[in-house]
Amino acid sequence: GYEVIMTGVDHLIKIGLADGDRMGVMGWSAGGHWSNWILTHTNRFKAISSGAGAVNWTSMYAQSDIQRGREFYYKGRPYENFEHYWDVSPLKYIRNAKTPTLIHVVDGDPRVPRPQSEELYMALVKLGVPTEFFVYPGSTHGITEPRNQLVKMVSEFSWMEKWIKGKAAWFDWKDLLATLNDEKEESKEPSDTP
Question: For 67, phi and psi rounded to 5 degrees?
């Protein structure tokens, strides 16, 4: 996985489609996991956006709604092959992380549950790596509401502009983060309709 991704990146640089000094990476689900792996294995990228990405395959086993495939790929259950689960977990290598990282997750994601993103966020904060954490309302593996999809896209654009190009954001993306909390509060308010 990682070697294939980096070979592709090197090829894009070689043919002039990417600037090796101004690169960012982003992904969701498996792409989020690879973003986390890249975060902990290279400093070639200036910014990362990780969406619903696994960071600790040992804890992920019990948190997620699927286990069978992981038992095959990771050669057993975590308590049968702990070393392998830990070796393929980005969290094992988190001390290598230096790249500013934006983290996205849906609150009730059953596939890659929120605690995976919380583990990543906590580790990056403790290490002093610039990071922000967006939690979207819902209970799906993806962001289904168009408004929240827009929040994600605009925040990623601003994050990349800031960390890759060194530009001041054309809007304060933290204001977007606050609107997600407003939406959660609105959904908790009782309805006036009988």
Answer: -130, -35
Residue-range domains of the chain with CATH: 23-185 (3.40.50.1820)
User: How far, in Å, CA of 42 to CA of 29, rounded?
Assistant: 20
Active site residue 141: yes
Candidate list 29, 64, 117, 155, residue with the active-site label: 29
Whole-number Å distance between alpha carbons of 169 and 144: 26
pLDDT tens by residue, 44-77? 999 999 999 999 999 999 999 988 788 888 889 9
Residues 6+ positions from 61 with CB-CB distance below 8 Å: 67, 70, 77, 78, 85
* Residues whose CB falls within 8 Å of the CB of residue 78, separated by 6 or more in sequence, listed in order: 57, 58, 61, 85
pLDDT in tens, 108-121: 999 999 999 999 99
pTM of the model: 0.88
Q: 49, 59, 117, 141: which one is catalytic?
A: 141
Q: H helices then E strands: how many in the chain?
A: 8, 4
Question: CA-to-CA distance for 175 and 192, rounded, in angstroms?
Answer: 29
Tell me, yes or no, if 11 is annotated catalytic: no
The answer to whether residues 82 and 58 touch, using CB atoms and an 8 Å cutoff, is: yes
